[in-house]
User: Which sequence fits this backbone?
């Protein structure tokens, strides 16, 4: 966590699955949609945008849009998006985006996945607060539901 | 950020007070304060004939909390991914 502590989120998880399996789960838009909870219409392609509705109950009106920044097979996948873009009445297209980067490393037990989301400092604090309030309550619970669903229906 | 440091002592300060021992002009300080106000980090309060400025107390905290919340969303998303690829592999 080198940069400003409010500018980025960094996560690491060890997965007992091959790099190619993890790569497919990240970059096949249908597989991504299954674990992330979104119905992406188009495949991920470098420099192109794909969008789709969130599939969490109560958030189906939310359209998620991501623009692929880089696809380096089985190494790195990154895209730009608008975090917390949950209000259909607001046009977020002119606001700054954050960059989400997935990096894959082979380890003896499978794959080490690092996720870095950065660029939060460019987003107006007022908007963060608004989004923060909108997300409060519902989102975390819904994500738990999805997690449960994915575990029960592999 | 010096302005924020001065305000972080918890008092409401006027532009003249903020301009004391500052290399910035009053105009520059006014501009900075406007930016900080737009970003929701400070608020202006009218006191008599003066405009005082104070730190928006929860603003910095809330920005951090928003980040913590997204951070937890990532935790959940990655737990879903983990279940997804590991169950799949066992099939």
Assistant:
């Amino acid at each position: 966590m080198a940069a400003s502590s409010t500018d980025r989120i960094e996560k690491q998880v060890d997965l007992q699955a091959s790099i190619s399996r993890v790569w497919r789960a990240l970059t096949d838009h249908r597989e991504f949609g299954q674990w992330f909870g979104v119905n992406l219409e188009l495949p991920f392609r470098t420099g192109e945008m794909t969008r789709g509705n969130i599939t969490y109950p109560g958030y189906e009106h939310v359209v998620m849009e991501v623009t692929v920044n880089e696809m380096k097979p089985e190494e790195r996948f990154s895209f730009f998006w608008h975090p917390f873009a949950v209000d259909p009445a607001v046009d977020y297209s002119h606001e700054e985006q954050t960059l989400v980067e997935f990096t894959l490393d082979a380890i003896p037990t499978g794959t080490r996945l690092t996720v870095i989301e950065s660029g939060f400092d460019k987003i107006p604090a007022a908007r963060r607060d608004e989004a923060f309030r909108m997300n409060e309550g519902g989102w975390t619970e819904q994500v738990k539901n999805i997690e449960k669903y994915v575990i029960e229906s592999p | 950020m010096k302005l924020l440091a001065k305000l972080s002592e918890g008092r409401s300060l006027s532009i003249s007070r903020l301009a004391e021992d500052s290399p910035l002009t009053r105009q520059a300080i006014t501009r900075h304060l406007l930016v900080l106000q737009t970003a929701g980090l400070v608020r202006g309060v009218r006191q008599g004939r003066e405009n005082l400025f104070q730190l928006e107390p929860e603003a910095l905290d809330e920005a951090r909390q928003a980040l913590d919340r997204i951070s937890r969303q990532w935790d959940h998303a990655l737990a879903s991914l983990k279940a997804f690829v590991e169950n799949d592999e066992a099939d």
Notes: The two ends of chain A are 33 Å apart (CA to CA). The CA atoms of residues 59 and 139 of chain A lie 8 Å apart. Strands of chain A lie at 8-15, 38-40, 49-54, 63-72, 76-81, 98-107, 110-118. The helical segments of chain A are 19-27, 29-36, 125-135, 138-152.
